[in-house]
Write a structure and sequence with these properties.
By secondary structure, this protein is an alpha+beta fold. It has 6 helices and 4 strands; from the N terminus they run ααααββααββ. Helices cover 40% and strands 13% of the residues.
């Protein structure tokens, strides 16, 4: 049996790998909220979509909100946690455009504030420079054990 994910990166990856999570997130980023709209846009079965939405609500990526009574109908809105996954989507889009862009349709992002098509970049919160993988190192910090208290 494989060990449980230990780092935050591994735990995030485990969530995003579940069923249709990544494509449901993509649709939610662009304003889809209702079950039938998710299903129409994604073309996945009702049972897979139901399971995926339930999973995403349980993990705190989406919030389920009642919008109609008799019959009860719900919409699914991105939570703060879900919204903060947007840079992950942008990074995947950027990579796909560069390395897989000739294989099919591209998603073009339009920035509503400046009214121009754009290619967002990830920058350092300290110096403002664009982040490049070869210019960054990492360390893993483990939380102090309870025995140390």
């Amino acid at each position: 049996m494989p060990a449980a994910p230990t780092t935050s990166v591994q735990r995030a990856e485990a969530i995003l790998q579940y069923s249709a999570t990544s494509v449901v997130l993509r649709e939610a980023f662009f304003g889809v909220r209702r079950f039938d709209d998710f299903q129409r846009n994604l073309g996945i079965s009702r049972s897979v979509l139901t399971r995926t939405l339930k999973y995403m609500v349980e993990r705190g990526l989406l919030e389920r909100r009642l919008y109609q009574n008799r019959p009860d109908r719900y919409e699914y809105r991105l939570s703060e946690s879900g919204i903060e996954l947007y840079p992950v989507f942008l990074a995947m889009k950027s990579w796909g455009d560069r390395w897989l862009g000739n294989d099919g349709s591209r998603v073009v992002l339009h920035h509503e504030l400046c009214h121009l098509d754009c290619s967002p970049q990830m920058t350092c919160d300290r110096c403002g420079e664009t982040m490049q993988a070869r210019e960054v190192t990492y360390r893993i910090e483990t939380p102090p054990s309870e025995a140390e208290h």
